[in-house]
Amino acid sequence: MIRRICTFALVALWALALVGASAEVGIANPWTETSAEGVMEALGLELGVPEGATDVSWRMLEEEQLAEMTFTWYDLPYTARVKPADAFEDISGLYYDWPQEMECVVGGRCKGVCRRATDGDVTVDNCLWYDEATGLMYSVSAQWPDMDGFDIQASAEQLYVPGQTE
C-alpha cells in the first residue's frame, strides 16, 4: 500500500513538473513590433508609405536587419520588406512556384523581378529589387482576387526610397 502511494506521488510530481516545464517552454517570437521611427533608429532603414495607405504597421527582425511594413492600399493587403544584402536575394517570405516572372527596373536604376502566382482564388504578386548603390534588397507583395491590369512594379515605385545609406 505504501509502495503504491509513493509510486502515485512520484508520478503526480513528475506530471506536475512536466506540465510546469512545458508551460514555460516555447518558441520566442523573433519579430519585434515597432514603428517607422523604431525601424529607422534600430536598423537605419525606411520604406515609403504610399499616399492613402491605411492600417500601416511595422515590425523587424533585428538579428537579420530585416524591416517589414504591412498596410492596406486601394483595399488590397500589402507586405513590404527591406534589408541590407550583398547581392540580390529573395526576402519576400513567399514560397510559391512562380509561373510568371518578368525582369524589371525600379527607381530607374535597380534591377529586379516581378512575379505572379495563383493560390486558389487569390493572385499573389511580388516585386523584388536590389539597389547596388546602397546594398539594400527590397520586396513588396500584394494579394488580390484575379484582376486584369494590376501592376506590382508601380507599387514598388511608391515604396522605394533611393539614396539610403549612400
CATH third-tier fold name = Jelly Rolls
Looking at the overall shape, the CATH architecture is Sandwich
State Rg. 23 Å
Report the top-level CATH class. Answer: Mainly Beta
What is the count of β-strands?
A: 8
**Proportion of helical residues:** 10-25%
* Global geometry: globular
Distance between the termini: 79 Å
Largest sheet: 8 strands, antiparallel
Strand order, largest beta sheet: 1-2-3-4-8-7-6-5
Based on secondary structure, the structural category is alpha+beta
Topology as a string of helices (H) and strands (E):
HEHEEEEEEEH
Strand content: 35-45%
> What count of helical segments does DSSP give?
3
Our count of domains comes out at: 1
Averaging pLDDT over every residue, what do you get? 83
As residue ranges, the low-confidence spans are 4-19
Can you walk through the features of this model?
The chain has 166 residues and is of the alpha+beta class. It has one domain (32-159): Jelly Rolls, CATH 2.60.120. The chain is 23% helix and 39% strand. The protein has 3 helices and 8 strands. The protein has helices at residues 2-24, 36-43, 152-159; strands at 32-34, 54-61, 66-73, 76-84, 100-106, 110-119, 122-131, 136-145. An 8-stranded antiparallel β-sheet has the order 1-2-3-4-8-7-6-5, covered by helices on one side. A hairpin with a 3-residue loop joins strand 5 (100-106) and strand 6 (110-119). It is globular and about 40 Å long. It starts with a helix and ends in a 7-residue tail after the last helix. Residues 4-19 have low confidence and may be disordered.
